[in-house]
Amino acid sequence: MTAEQARLEENSARRAHWNRWGPYLALRAWGTVREDYSADADPWAYFPHEHAHLRAYRWNEDGLLGISDRHQRICFAIALWNGKDPILKERPFGLSGSQGNHGEDVKEYYFHLDNTPTHSYMKALYKYPQAAFPYERLREENRRRTRDDAEFELADTGVFAENRYFDVTVEYAKAAPDDILIRVEAVNRGPEPAWLDVLPSVWLRNRWSWGGNRGSGVGDRAGITAVGGDCLEISEPYYGKRWLYVRQSQGFRALLFTENESNRQALWNSPNAMPYTKDAFHRYVIHGESGAVNPAMRGTKAAAHYSFSIAPGAAERMELRLSDAQMDTPFGPAFDGVFADRIREADEFYAPVTPRELSADGALVMRRAFAGLLWNKQYYHYVVQQWLAGDPAYPPPPAQRKLGRNHEWGHLYNADVISMPDTWEYPWYASWDLAFHTIPLALIDSEFAKEQLVLLMREWYMHPNGQLPAYEWNLGDVNPPVHAWAAWRVYKIERKRRGKADRAFLERVFCKLLLNFTWWVNRKDAAGKNVFQGGFLGLDNIGVFNRSEPLPGGEYIEQADGTGWMAMYCLNLMAMALELAREEPAYEDVASKFWEHFLYIAYAMNHIGGDGEALWDPADGFYYDRVHMPDGNHQALKVRSMVGLIPLFAVETLEPRVLHSMPGFRRRMEWFMEHRPDLTHNVASMAVAGKGERKLLSLVDADQLRVILKRMLDPAEFLSDFGVRSLSRAHAGDPFVLRTDGSLRTVAYEPGESRSGLFGGNSNWRGPVWFPLNYLIVESLQKFHHYLGESFQVECPTGSGKTMHLADVAAELSRRLSRLFLKDEVGRRPAHANLQWEDGLILFHEYFHGDTGAGLGASHQTGWTALVAKLLQQSGD
Predict the structure, then answer these.
(1) Any bridge partners for residue 805, and if so which?
(2) How many CA atoms lie within 13 A of 262 on its CB side?
(3) What does the DSSP assignment read for 220-267?
């Protein structure tokens, strides 16, 4: 057992709280739904970036490469000033949804370099321009550009010319669960000396301005005071006392103090509640206002102020230590020794996770993916009932909010550390993203992966009707039902890696998933035809219509993806029930129920499709959505997209030993096969045993599979050099056109950023490669191979004349996906086609250009894109 594994064991057993402190501080809290109390439900306008340095947050704090405790009562981060910016750099800047020509977008460069599951060691890098940060130019140029234009990025402004920037690295190492050593290093990459102010800052989340108590209720006042000239004493009612030790190295100027309170005068031209406000350090450092900071050396926000002139290529280092213990010598040789130990232990921890045959570059990509995944853990706080009602110390919110966004989710009480898609662009959880996060997480911290899956099904998350919350912009939206799949995969990954099965976890999530499955059946199959709607289902603009909204002319859509997801859901629950039945035979009946429900869905998908028309089109060899008109007519929406590939995910094999050991399930299955051949003959293949005498449950038979794969593996359609596209490239020259309700609607191949404003326009499912569904394609092909064996061969790529069995096809897709991040023959990483930094700095984007592989969308979506670590772990380069 490595030292990091021992810490995980101690944490799991609650012998030591190694996860009390971590990277739980978001990069953005402004522009979020939680902070929005407007009448028009426009978070970006209600709390813009211009307010962030002036205004206290209600629900969550943010900061640059910072940390907090898991309840976010105490926060630490850095602030920077290059001598030219109008404000301190306390948080990354980005454009709001309306400012960006492709939606919201961070306009900064930062990199997650390392992290361990207990956050015993963390490292990240931020690139800070030495020129004035071009806030207005970024806003104006992106506002001028259209959706047909590329985004205007920070590098495009020229501020990095001649390498005139600072590399600012922040490292954290834990000597003990509540003893955190901090190193901040600034390197001048430019050709001339440059000035830099650095303010490592600690503050208390404002929990008192909203009508609550500042202290504990027994007279204790939360606050920060000076102890001498090199120590800050932090008093917090929940945690007691903590001390932030500051090494007075070269460049140290002073300790600064203020309050984490809004500057009402600057914001709203009303008197301030107290003279010292959140923006005090901006006014003190930039404008020289000595009266902005508290001379009494106390407050709820404090900083150590360093100021340097750094020579070209030179570095300046600052050292701090946040601890629950009073120390006489917090620094010295032992300080560097802790860092050396934690770095070595991180290497030891990741070594057995990384395949020996993996190249050094592949191992680096895995390590960076895990780092980003762990840095994206964030404290998330949102109590809908309080949010709707408003706070006692403030005027009541507009009345229309009571029937507005999320008003049906009054039970929701979120105050937890959650794995986020991206802590700037998506600093809120999304239920289906989170399910994919747990797969790579299970390789390094299966306990946290399981906790995350359980969390979203707890009573204060899951709606009383069984629905899972989607995301804060619309908690009632519908994400694909992938939690059962994720729970089953995490269970099996942990069983394989740790040699033990957590049956209690499986049973716990299974019971809650039954509630969610029932919600799906009752709400999304209202006609009882086993063909599902679902709406949005995470695929944003993939369809002709905005599927999150009622269709404009009263039409409704029967969805191939919604129905395919539900067939997959049935098989996932069946597999879980069969596993539980190994010790409790009563689960055999439940397994039979899901097997039979799957049969009904399979029949509907391939035959009835609602009103006598199937979702399967035998002439095209593809699944399509079908729109039903108010006059009773219906039409297939013949868009060849990922919607038609999702039915492949509904595949499961039944092992002979399972059938032999489950007599109740086997008898029911045999009875059904004998008496309902009209249903069972749709399922490939219950009657014919495959490789290893297995049985196969799938929506498609071998002939359908071959036809679908012919399209999917065709470079002229779905197959790119970097995975499977979300829309067929055939639609570049042959767009799908629908005339309805007096309007013309078109879906064309768009391999890059979206050219449509549909669903906000900040993501695109009309051509790019997306990791989560590609991962499910790989996994589904492996399952088909498990039954069909090596004799089932398909041409790959289509038209190449080269045939492969499906395991090799899955491996080929894995290689193409991994190739996005691996250096090519000239040393470039295709995902970084738009901008190449020095070697080792790797970004994991939200999605990728369908032709070039360039990273697009959110730049730090090391949530589901961290699935590349799992692909590399199971297949190598």
Answers:
(1) 793
(2) 20
(3) ---EEEESTTSEEEEEETTTEEEEEEE---TTEEEEEEE-S---HHHH
Encoded tokens for 164: 């005139």
Q: Quick check: pTM over 0.85?
A: yes
682-689 CB contacts, 8 Å cutoff, 24+ apart: 682/599, 682/602, 682/603, 682/606, 682/607, 683/598, 683/599, 683/602, 685/787, 689/656
| 216 pLDDT more than 60 | no
Report the distance separating Cα 614 and Cα 622, nearest Å.
Answer: 11
Which token pair is 127? 């690139």
State the pLDDT confidence band at 760, using cuts at 50, 70 and 90. Answer: low
DSSP string, 445-510: -HHHHHHHHHHTTSTTTS-TTSPPP--TT-TTS-----HHHHHHHHHHHHHHHHS---HHHHHHHH
User: Which H or E element spans position 213?
Assistant: none
* Residue-level pLDDT at 215: 40
Tell me the average pLDDT across 322-336: 96
Spatial separation of the C-alpha atoms in residues 541 and 847, rounded to whole Å? 14
Strands 556-558 and 625-628 turn out to be antiparallel
The per-residue pLDDT for range 279-324, each reduced to its tens digit, is 999 999 999 999 999 999 999 999 999 999 999 999 999 999 999 9
Query: Euclidean distance between the first and final Cα of the chain, in Å?
Result: 27
| Band of pLDDT at residue 606, cut at 50, 70 and 90 | confident
Nearest one of 732, 703, 736, 730 to 637, comparing CA atoms: 736
Q: What is the DSSP letter of 681?
A: T
Q: How many CA atoms lie within 13 A of 751 on its CB side?
A: 21
In the predicted structure, residue 454 carries a pLDDT above the cut 50: yes
Any idea what DSSP says for residue 310? E
Contacts for 688 with CB less than 8 Å, ≥ 6 apart: none
Expressed in percent and rounded to 5, the helix, strand and coil fractions of the chain are 35, 20, 45
Q: For all residues of the chain together, what is the average pLDDT?
A: 93
- The answer to whether 851 touches 861, Cβ cutoff 8 Å, is no
Q: Using an 8 Å Cβ cutoff, are 374 and 862 in contact?
A: no
| DSSP symbol at 143 | H
Contacts of 395 (CB under 8 A, 6+ apart): none
Contacts of 9 (CB under 8 A, 6+ apart): 1
Q: What is the pLDDT of residues 649-672, one digit of tens each?
A: 999 999 999 999 999 999 998 888
* Over residues 451-461, mean pLDDT: 98
Query: CB under 8 Å to 58, separation ≥6 — which residues?
Result: 34, 35, 206, 210, 391
Q: Report the half-sphere exposure of 605 (CA within 13 A, side-chain side).
A: 33
- The answer to whether residue 689 scores a pLDDT higher than 50 is yes
The encoded tokens of residue 648 equal 């492949």
Peptide bond into 830 cis (omega under 30): no
489-527 pLDDT tens trace:
999 999 999 888 999 999 999 999 999 999 999 887 766
Task: Calculate the alpha carbon distances from 561 to 154, 181, 469, 625, 823 in Å.
Answer: 38, 49, 20, 8, 35
